[in-house]
Amino acid sequence: MKVFITRQIPQKGLDLLRSAGISFTEWAERRELEQNELINICKNYDALISVGQNKINKRFLQECRHLKAIAQMAVGFDNINVAEATMLKIPIGNTPGVLSKATADIAFLLMLAVSRKAFYMHKKIINGEWGFYEPTADLGMEMEEKTLGIFGLGKIGFEMAKRCAGAFNMKIIYHNRKMNDEAEKKLNAKRVSLDELLAQSDVLSVHTALTEETRGFFDYGRFAGMKHSAIFINTARGAIHNEPDLIRALNEKLIWGAGLDVTHPEPMHADNPLLQMPNVAVLPHIGTTTEETRDAMSKLAAENIIAASKNEQLPHIVNPEVYAS
Digits of tens for pLDDT over the chain (325 positions)? Predict the structure, then answer.
């Protein structure tokens, strides 16, 4: 089997592929592949490891229907037309589970950075503005016994809730389609309606997948339903919040602050007003950027490819129905 990889990935995954006798080529240029380029390249390969947001849409899948598998080196797969892949019997794999703690750490970091205006205060030092002490200037807020609201309480949301409950004795509420029994038992979490989540959360942290239903979900109306003292955190996908509406909500003081590891678009433009707001912290999508997490993600992606090379079901499969007779 010949595999094309759209980025250079950690050695752990490459070693697994090599030990299984699978040949591979990594895209080494520091630029995004155009879709036509990716299609033409993949015509000469048997499988694809997609790293980043490569556009795996209907056109790509139709022209590369010979692929035995596509392994997404991420937990999210909103860049892939899974329905089309399933119709063409192309198994899609992802890397679930191994990035939950690292991503939750970033959500927790953003919550603290926003609550204490940390990024803004750091800029003051750089700009030579660390000067006269004013007891009433640039005040933040404490998180002790505040209410954390989770929109989409899955594995990452659970890890975020666990950190907040353990560190600050925060009350946990969440909005899901289904109850999260583990969170209710271990963290005393309470499932609430969307309106209750918006109205009661001191910190609202987004941990849902990007779907047609959640795209642009947090808009001006939803921000208007939040506490004026609330902090909005998004470490899931940038398109889940409407960025112009978020900027407007912050300017009008409908909410107190925001912490983003994901933006829309990505990369964020350097002149985006969010970057200059005192109560905002923005990171360049670094939720999974630890050695341990990236090693684990590369191994899961490799495991999916190795299974495909043996005509076995991918162990981390997104569309298991492709194996139905």
Answer: 999 999 999 999 999 999 999 999 999 999 999 999 999 999 999 999 999 899 999 999 999 999 999 999 999 999 999 999 999 999 999 999 999 999 999 999 999 999 999 999 999 999 999 999 999 999 999 999 999 999 999 999 999 999 999 999 999 999 999 999 999 999 999 999 999 999 999 999 999 999 999 999 999 999 999 999 999 999 999 999 999 999 999 999 999 999 999 999 999 999 999 999 999 999 999 999 999 999 999 999 999 999 999 999 999 999 999 998 6
Sketch out the chain's domains with CATH numbers: 2-98+290-323 (3.40.50.720), 100-282 (3.40.50.720)
Structure tokens at 220: 């001006």
Polymer length of the chain: 325
Distance, C-alpha 100 to centroid of its chain: 10
Among 232, 233, 235, which residue's Cα sits nearest to residue 223? Answer: 232
Helix (H, G, I), strand (E, B) or coil at 203: strand
pTM (predicted TM-score): 0.94
Sheet containing 203-206, strands listed edge to edge, beginning at the edge strand earlier in sequence: 190-191, 171-175, 147-151, 203-206, 231-234, 257-260, 280-282
CB-CB contact of 305 with 22 (8 Å) = yes
270 CB-near residues (< 8 Å, 6+ apart): none
Q: Over the Cα atoms of the chain, what is R_g?
A: 21
Rounded Cα distance, 26 and 49, in Å: 9
Would you name the residues annotated as active-site residues? Answer: 237, 266, 285
